[in-house]
Specification:
8-stranded parallel sheet, globular, about 325 residues, two-stranded antiparallel sheet
Amino acid sequence: MFTWLKNRLQRNGLTAYVTHTECLHHNMGVGHPECPERLTAIRDQLMASQIFDSLQQVEAPEVSYEQLARVHPPRYVEYLESCSPSVGTFRVDPDTAMSPGTLKAARRAAGAVVKAVEMVAEDKAPNAFCAIRPPGHHAESDKAMGFCFFNNVAIGVTHALAHYRFERVAVIDFDVHHGNGTEEILHDDPRVMMVSIFQHPFYPYRGDEPMGPNMHNVPMKAGSGGREFREVVENIWLPQLHEFQPQILFISAGFDAHREEDMGSLGLTESDYEWVTRHLMQIADQYCAGRVVSVLEGGYDLSALGRSVAAHIRVLSDG
């Protein structure tokens, strides 16, 4: 208890809000739920909630080839480059399309997470939120899917391991869809532990059988709500995190488990996101010197997304 309070009091600086205007230039077509307006809705709600001005605004750099190569083989990156259209869209799967601005947006999205790692590892910010798109947690090492091209969180995790020599890194994923790409990339690394919830059976129709002992996946039935979610956090996530004692936390922050979302059938609310963020901050303060890198994944109802992200960032920025 006293260690947690001491670390909390020692944290200083403003939460980093890492983004780039090029993330708005990825467009998969009229009516697609993963749309540029998602980032606008988040910014508008943060401003309306008087949170935005209390954040440290940070421009995302482009990810480097070296940083990408820790996760995605060069042939995969070359494939995406060959698919990039000069006009219109090119579909890499039925749900996922590239536009002329997609690759630049994806490079900024991955670069944002690398920048966030740098900031929290070098004490330039106590924690960070990456307001980015396209999302990443479905992207496997050599496969784009589920609106995702590069696995932003996995790129951040491998950068933390390789560049800053962290020995224990935890990934928390509360998106309504299982982060299959993150699991596929990180399941054989004992330095990483992942805890997650997701609706099941549901896209991508996996995760119920973990790929490794460091993957603690908890499928949830359609209709599950805040009570069931909080039971999972208290009975499974927190004990695993306490046992692992991570040195930095990554959050795959998908907000499509919200009850107002058409994309899924779980029933979370802003209060649930606020509650889980507070518990994760306590873990971070106890073991990680407060280091948290939160990365936007899903969330497609614009009003629910804006309110949920505001609740999440309010806890990050308040400590």
